[in-house]
Structure formats: C-alpha cells, structure tokens
Write a structure and sequence with these properties.
With about 350 residues, this protein is an alpha/beta fold. The protein folds into three domains: about 100 residues, Response regulator (Rossmann fold, 3-Layer(aba) Sandwich), CATH 3.40.50; about 70 residues; about 150 residues, Heat Shock Protein 90. The protein is built from ten helices and twelve strands. The protein has a five-stranded parallel beta sheet, sandwiched between helices. Strands 7-9-10-12-11 form a five-stranded mixed beta sheet. The radius of gyration is 27 Å and the shape is elongated. It binds adenosine-5'-diphosphate (ADP). Adenosine-5'-diphosphate (ADP) binds next to α9 and α10.
C-alpha cells in the first residue's frame, strides 16, 4: 500500500488537532509542525506527499515557508495547500497561490470536503510523478542514443573514407555514388543526433527558463549573427519595438533564431523573403508574431510541425524537424504558448505568447 503522509502545520493547537484527527480517520499518516523551521525540518526528513500549511505561524509567514519549500530541490515537488480562516482577504489568497502554493483552503471546512480535496490533490500529484518519471526515461534514452550511436557512426564515416581512398584507382562511377550516399546518410544522422541531444538538454535543464529577457536586444543579436544568411537570401527583415518578457535570453534567442532561419529557408524560389516581426500586448502577456512571404503549408499541419522530427517539405530543404519542437519546449517552459497560421503559397505567421515580468507583490 502506497504511503500517504501529510504534514499538518498550524500553531493553533485545537485546529491542528481536529484536522489531524479527521485525516487519520480517513487513513492518512499525519505529522504535525507548529512553526516554519519545524515544517522545513520535518518535510526534509520525512518527505510527505502533501503539506497543509497555515498562513500565520509564529516565526514566519506561511507564504515565505512555501517559497522556501519551492526553492528547495528536495522538496519542490511537494503539494502545498495553504489553510486559513474565512476572514482572509482575497488578495492574500492570490498572493499565496502566486507564490507557489497548489491550493488555498478556507476553514471551517466539512471533514468530508477536506478529505475529498486532499485526495484530489494527491491524485494530481501521482499523475505529475508518473509524467516526471516518463520524461526522465526519455532524457536517459536521448542521452544513451547520443553517446552510444555517435561512436559507431564516426567509425562508419572514417572507414568509408579510408576504404574509398584505398580503392580509389579501382572505383567506378556507381561505386563513387554509393560512397557519396553512405557519407550523406552518416552526416544527416550525425545532425539528427546532435539536434536530439540539444532538445534533450533543454528538458534536463529546467532552470535556465527563469529570468527576464529583453526581446529587442535578443533580436538584434540574432540579426547580427544571421546577417550573412539574410544577405545571401536577399531578405528584408523589419520589426516593431519588442518588449521585455519573462524567460531566459539565451533560450529565447534560440526561438527567434529558429523561426527566422525557417522564414529564410522556406522561401519562394522567385520572391526574396520579406519578414516582419510584430509585438502586441494581450492582457499581462505579449504576443510576438513573425510573418513571412514564403511557401507556407496547409493549416491542418499547424500543430504537427511542433512535434519532434515532423517535416512537411522534402529533402531539398535541409533540416531535421527539431527546430520548432525546441521552440515549443522553450516557450511552454516559460509559461507561454506557440502556434502558427499558414496556407500554401501565402506565407506563414508564427506567434508566441510570453508573460510580462512581475512588477508588484502585495
Ligand atoms: P526543420 O526546418 O529542420 O525541418 P522545424 O522543426 O524547424 O524543422 O520545422 C518543421 C517543419 O515545419 C519544416 O520541415 C517545414 O515543413 C515546416 N515549416 C517551419 N517553418 C516554416 C515556414 N516559415 N514556412 C513554411 N513551412 C515551415
């Protein structure tokens, strides 16, 4: 039977006692704490699945304790439900949830409602754990692929070349062509593995998504780095003033770079690329849109292209089908969304939405 351990934190003894009793009767194991320090100590020692955290504690306020839990890698996945009396102001509830709590319960509560609520949060927690485990499995898989496959591929490439040098005087045209096919295949596979590795690193490295990014500066860096490619395609790139958003600058640079290089790559053969990057406010978020005049694609594929290795156009366009999956991963990790609109022959517009940085705390 799975352990169901709850840490019940309240400095008010009668309230804490009553809650623990209800939980124990429902079959939970319950630990109790009366202060912020004790909460962190017991949570670190016993790893409860869920913490019921009173907002007013003698040594710290519950919001701060919750922030400490979230910033502690050992505890950050623990479900935290704040609990306080009905006299609480709505803005405190908002602050508690914004500061990292999973829920906010207001007392008095019917015992059956308390139990059902705790069970519902634990169900969510189990689903999250399962997802995390499966992601971890995927990361390990990608890591193994990159390391174990790179080595034999390198050997294939080296020995194919050595072999053809060795046989050079005897090689006829078909043999040269076959050698070329082998080497092209190897190069493509090396690129796929490299891109897959880059994608799996993003998954592993969750922390880089935090911070504040000035998209104007980020775009300028991308334009500078891609100046040669832009010039080679005869492209004209225009843009609005871009905002500051939540997110890591290095990661968002990858998003803009991937979108821009696609806009250059999927161009019409006879029309020089015209690309415009616009910014529009949407509530407390920004929508950045990159519009091109390229070959476009059928709108029914607009979700599929964000999936790993999905490509709509043929081998005449170099690529591995990883770029947009990377963009999606970065934007969603930063709490945003990415989507595309297009139709064949009429260009494409890629939009991504990201929250603006927090400015106020109560
Ligand atoms: P790659 O470009 O390496 O194939 P991406 O993940 O960047 O991989 O893009 C996935 C697919 O989406 C591309 O293969 C292409 O078919 C389509 N696509 C992406 N950007 C555009 C664009 N600006 N115009 C038309 N099609 C695009």
């Amino acid at each position: 039977m799975e352990q169901r351990l709850i840490l019940n934190v309240d400095d008010y003894l009668p309230g804490r006692y009553a809650r623990s009793k209800i939980l124990r009767q429902a079959g939970f194991s319950v630990l109790e704490a009366q202060s912020g320090d004790e909460t962190i100590r017991l949570a670190t020692l016993h790893k409860p699945q869920l913490i019921l955290l009173d907002v007013n504690l003698p040594d710290a306020n519950g919001f701060e304790v919750c922030k400490q839990i979230r910033s502690n890698p050992e505890l950050s996945a623990t479900t935290v439900l704040h609990i306080s009396a009905s006299s609480i102001m709505p803005q405190h509830q908002v602050y508690g949830l914004d500061s990292g709590a999973d829920g906010y319960l207001v007392e008095p509560m019917e015992p059956s409602v308390l139990i059902a609520t705790v069970n519902a949060y634990l169900r969510m927690r189990r689903a999250e754990d399962a997802l995390r485990r499966s992601n971890q499995g995927l990361e390990e898989f990608a890591f193994v692929i990159s390391h174990d496959l790179q080595e034999p591929l390198r050997n294939i490439s080296i020995y194919t070349e050595l072999l053809s040098n060795h046989l050079e005087p005897y090689l006829d045209e078909p043999s040269r062509l076959y050698q070329h096919y082998v080497l092209t295949g190897v190069t493509r596979m090396q690129k796929l593995i490299k891109d897959l590795l880059q994608f799996s690193r993003l998954i592993q490295d969750g922390s880089e998504g935090s911070g504040i990014a000035n998209l104007g500066t980020v775009l300028e860096q991308v334009l500078e780095a891609m100046a040669n490619a832009i010039e080679a395609e005869g492209a004209v790139v225009t843009y609005d003033p871009l905002p500051v958003v939540k997110g890591g600058e290095n990661l968002l640079e990858q998003v803009i770079r991937n979108l821009l290089s696609n806009a250059l790559k999927y161009r019409k053969p006879d029309d020089p690329p015209r690309i415009h990057i616009a910014a529009k406010r949407a509530g407390r978020s920004w929508i950045i849109s990159m519009q091109d005049n390229g070959i476009g694609f059928e709108s029914k594929f607009s979700d599929r292209i964000f999936t790993l290795f999905q490509r709509l156009h043929g081998q005449e366009y170099a690529g591995t089908g990883v770029g947009l999956a990377i963009c999606k991963r970065i934007v969603e990790h930063g709490g945003g969304r990415i989507w595309a609109e297009s139709s064949p022959g009429n260009g494409s517009t890629f939009h991504f939405m990201l929250p603006e940085p927090d400015t106020s705390e109560p």
